[in-house]
Each structure stands twice: as C-alpha cells, then as structure tokens.
Amino acid sequence: MTVAPPSSEKSVPLVHVYADKAALVAAATDQVIELIRDAIATRGRCSIALSGGSTPKPLYQALAQTELPWDQLYVYWGDERYVPATHPDSNAKMTRDAWLDHVAIPADNIFAVPTDTDSPEISAERYQQSLMGSFNTSSKDELPQFDLMLLGMGDDGHTASLFPHTLALKEFDRWVTVGNKDGQPRITLTSRVINQARHVLFVVAGANKQTALSQVFAPTADSAAYPARLIAPVGELRWLLDLDASQGLPAAIERTVH
Prior knowledge:
The chain contains 7 helices and 10 strands.
C-alpha cells in the first residue's frame, strides 16, 4: 500500500519523557488543562478530540475534579468502535463514566460518534455531517481545526483507528472514514483532519511501544506499516512518553527528561 506523505509544513515534535506512567498521566493532565484554558482565553471556546484506551482514563478522571468553563468546551472523539453507546468497549461510554457525566458540560457541546446505524459507513457519514455542522462549514474541503487532538499509539504503530495496511490510511478526501481492526469496523477521523489541529498530544506508555516508536521516529520508514508516522500537524506536536516507552526512541531524537 502506498500512503501519501504528511505535509512538509509540519512541526518538529516536542518529546517529553517521564519516570513512570503515573508521572506521565499527571503531566498530560496539566498540559491538557493548560491548552484548554489557553484556547478559551484566545478564541472563546476549545474544541478537543479525545482518544480511547486505558492510558487516558485517569487523565479524564482528573479532569472531572477540575474547575473549567465547561460551557466553552466542545468535546469530540478521534475514533470510536462500532458498538452501542452503552457497550463496555465504547470510547464515549468510558469518557462519560470517567469525566463528562461528572461536570456541568452542556449536552449540546458533546459530539459522540453515532453508532446506532445500519452500517459503519453510515455512522462515518453522519459523524462527518455532525462535525461540519459544529464547525459551521458546508464544504468538506474546508477542514476543521481542532484546538487539541489527544492521541494514543498501539504497539503496532496505529493511532486513532488508523491501523497498519488498511484502506483508511489512503482516505484523504473525507473527514471521517471506516477503520478496521482484525475485521472489526471502527469510525475514525482521517489523518488529513488530525493534521489540521492546533495541538496534537500523544500520550504513550509501556515497553511494548518501543519497536513502534523506533519506526515512527526513524528518518525513513513505512507509514503504511506504522500509521502514527502520518501525524504531522500544521500546529504543535507533542509526544509525552513514560521512561519504558522512550527506550525505543532513536538516539538522535531530542527529548526533555523530567
């Protein structure tokens, strides 16, 4: 599979390394709060796209204990499993349970992926239409710019639901497409949309991520095999790693160790 390279107008990634997962999550929480407040102070609102998985859950739980201007926060998801909203595997359910149900955020500010449809393709189309309405655009060529895109990375190098050697990697026309993990459909933002974000924040923990990180940060490697390489935003790119994961970084990569 041939995948188009990211834009040449990309940010140099800022890499931060923390002693363990607890320190990583604490730092990520502080940075997310700071970015939310800065966006609201600058633009009067903050649009944040969330990731699923186990790593961000304690971050969301910490946000539930934070005082923020919730009516100015707009919440989206970078990807979602094609399961009912009440299913234990639902990213939206996890986030609601950990965070959103515990703060006074208006229901109209939450844009979950609709999965109660006849097909994942319909879900992807409806989510794209929902995003276009939220960002007040009538053209899919006028890309949304999220203030903050929160991402994780799997040990196979995937991010959002952009999995290795899948058709979603080659979708550059749409905002939202159907991802695929071992035959299980996912709904995901495309790399083209992710790369429009003002801030992209990867939060990655665990020694099992070392091989993928070595390829994501290699001078040359296959983006189809390690899709996180496709993430090269026009805005700021931060990678927050725990010490175990960071052992996979090539020696030449500059990093700040905390």
